[in-house]
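Need tokens for this chain, all 247 residues.
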Amino acid sequence: MVFITGDTHGNFQRFAIEHFPEQKKMSRNDYVIICGDFGGLWDGSAKEKYWLDWLNDKPFTTLFVCGNHENFDMLGALPEIEWHGGKVHQVRDHVLHLMRGQLYEIDGYQFFTMGGAQSHDIEDGILDPDDPNFRFEYRRKAKTNQRFRIRGRSWWPEEMPSDEEYLTAMATLDKHNWEVDYVITHCAPSGLLPMLGRHYQTDRLTDFFDMVSKKLMFHYWLFGHYHDNRNIGQNYVLLWEQIVQII
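Here are the structure tokens for all 247 residues:
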């Protein structure tokens, strides 16, 4: 079985047995995929480690693509292994990060993954803690309820793919003749954004996905990021709190 859900932001209560009773019939060879903003690696606290261990002890295997709200320093420091035909970061034995531009075969189905997104909650700026004016600017922005983040603490430039990751994605799709079963991302193709909200802006990644969506043969494209649960057309599924079974 393969289930999929949207952003968790470090809160995994939806996987408690009372909310997700399907796990009673699941094993390590069954999977739950999170469409980005996993948030389980953020500050390395004892509380965070407790919840990662709690998730690891679940009967299923947890998989996730990265979102924009991740600690990319911590993600990048994880061991990288081969898994089901693609590369993953190993958070725990049974908690795995599905890396960008990879393709995995699960139960005979092909999953193409490309995490990341441009943050849309930083319109008032990104502060650098090494800036001599950091404390003053932080207090000023916090006092006036501005929306900002801090480099290396709550925001990382790696939220967007690198040139190398785009090239990896293209090579992967070329290798598989631009045909997969499922696409798992955090943000959506540019062409869908007008249906998701007027304030969402296109960027390099959403434009890349737009190109991919027009060329790639796929059954379903599942994504998170926009905090809603909706089917868009016949092939696109936006997820947030819902957990849906796809296999």
